Amino acid sequence: MNFLLTLVLILLPIAFLLVNRKRSSKRLPPGSLGMPLVGQSLSLLWAMRANTAEKWLEERMKKYGPISKLRLFGKPTVFIYGQAANKLVFASDDSIVVNQQAVSMRMILGDRNLLELSGEDHKRVRRAVLSFLKPESLKMYISKMEKEVLRHLKMHWEGKQQILPLMKTLTFNIICSLIFGIEPGAERDQYVQNFQKMIEGMWSVPINIPFTRFNQGLKGSAMVQKLMKELLKEKRLEQKEGAQSQKDLISFLLSIRGEGNGELKSEDEIIHNAMLVMVAGYDTGSVLITFIIRILANNRTVYGAVLNEQDEIAKSKSNGEFLTWEDLSKMNYTWKVALETLRLYPPIFGAFRKAIKDIEYGGYIIPKGWQILWVTAMTHMDNSIFQEPANFDPARFEKQASIPPYCFIPFGGGAHMCPGYDFAKIEILITIHHLVTRFKWKLCGTDNHFIRDPMPVPTEGLPIQISPKELL
User: Would you name any one GO CC term (predicted)?
Assistant: First the structure.
């Protein structure tokens, strides 16, 4: 009898666990995790490079519905989309969802950047980075950014050119100047190829064997971190000799290290977050400007309205006078064009979060520890949110309050809103101002195709014929 009672007491909990496990597995979202490690990673990456990623996801939604499971970049993942999904991602507190990117991105950018931190660490580091990137601080850098734009146009903008490589050169130089405080020359040149390797490796299967994108990304990251450690030493010496702490982001972060709630605790936090800002500004800014140039070439009505706005501002400036914050605030239509471009061609395809506990969502369980994938374009191209979403219409943003929350998300949302929003806005407006007031251009091809690698890349880098206005 005692033996039977003991056996029952042992078997009951096991049976309970098995039943609950079976119930729980039934409540997992539909779909397949695929092969270990790889899963659907290669299939998604191929679709991105063929410019069919949104179609790939739409077919998945038709098959499985608004929530499904898969495996991406080595981790079990749940794909969700829509306004409610975006709200879950951006508005949930850290007891539900936390920052965590794909393994490949985390290993390349480091684990102390804003995309990886949560809770008080995220608030502390975000506060520090925003102290430099907020409008009140950036106002003093407008002329410095404009000098980089003018120098770039003088050196490169003539004849037949590929726009995307040109814009990458421009945004790289702006970031080097304002974020790193590195003047033009050999020191800048050491960074650019390694940054490109990092970007190409961030969305890749994390298999570290020679010549894979992940392997090259890790090597690029190691070289950049080495260069940045040397740069930190130089900045410390400059500060000891009385250099201004506000002249660039790295100098600023060094100056506030260890001072209180807004400080950065370690050298790694400075380096990893400077790398994040660099990668974000280098690629997203160049992609956005490139697609704006393409739209202005294809849409004469939009081009005319942008030109009229910018000509009025140019006429109000004395010869050689730099743009001001007040001038930028008058570029309302130009910024609406930029926002509509971001809606149609968001540089960031999507990103990941991590479930910190089992989450009830859409009638299923998102298990604790799983990745959550959100994709930018899934609400941007939803015709229940944006009427005739395939049409280019800057008027959509005349009343941004009319756009439902968590539907237009090129810069994220909530506490995870991109801290570089104002930096990007200033960079775009200054660049477009000088392009349309100084040059005319026409596309050299009719192919509007682009791939994602992982950012959108127009065919052949968008070749155009450029002419200074005074020569036309």
Answer: membrane
The string of pLDDT tens digits covering residues 69-100 is 999 999 999 999 999 999 999 999 889 999 88
Decide if pLDDT at 160 tops 80: no
Q: Which long-range contacts (CB under 8 A, 24 or more apart) does 454-458 make?
A: 454/48, 454/199, 454/202, 454/203, 454/349, 455/199, 455/283, 455/284, 455/287, 455/347, 455/348, 456/287, 456/291, 456/345, 456/347, 457/164, 457/287, 458/163, 458/164, 458/290, 458/291, 458/294
Residue 161 domain-assigned (yes or no): yes
Total domains, the chain = 1
Q: Is residue 2 part of a domain?
A: no
Does the annotation place 418 within a ligand binding site? yes
**Is the predicted pLDDT of residue 471 greater than 50, yes or no?**
no
Q: In this structure, is residue 389 part of a structural domain? A: yes
Whether 120 maps to a domain, the answer reads yes
* The pLDDT value given to residue 263: 67
Q: How many angstroms separate the CA atoms of 246 and 251, rounded?
A: 7
**pLDDT tens per residue, range 238-282:** 888 876 767 788 888 888 766 555 567 788 999 999 989 888 888
CATH number at 400 reads: 1.10.630.10
Q: Rounded to an integer, what distance in angstroms lies between the CA atom of residue 447 and that of residue 328?
A: 33
pTM of the model: 0.88
Q: Which of 378, 445, 421, 428 is nearest to 53 (CA)?
A: 378
- At residue 26, does pLDDT exceed 80? no
Q: Closest Cα to residue 351, out of 284, 285, 295, 448?
A: 284
Nearest to 74 by CA among 109, 42, 117: 42
DSSP structural state of residue 356: S
